Amino acid sequence: xxxITIDGVEHNxxxxxxxxxxxxxxxxxxxxxxxxxxxxxxxxTTGRQAYINELGQALNQDDNEDFVDDHGE
Length: 73
Hints:
Elements: E1 3-6, E2 9-12, H1 18-70
Antiparallel strand pairs: 1-2
């Protein structure tokens, strides 16, 4: 017996109407997509940080080269 709990009340899935089962299916699809989006956000956040780190390193390298050039060293 498969059950779902809504607002603290447990319901037997077999007793749901076809419309209710359809709604439950949509909720499951939404939950799957939300989880997928969270994973995508994690990947994009990691990539974004890598770009920021790369830019910071390039800017720091340029600053160090400018410092050497300005002082003739």
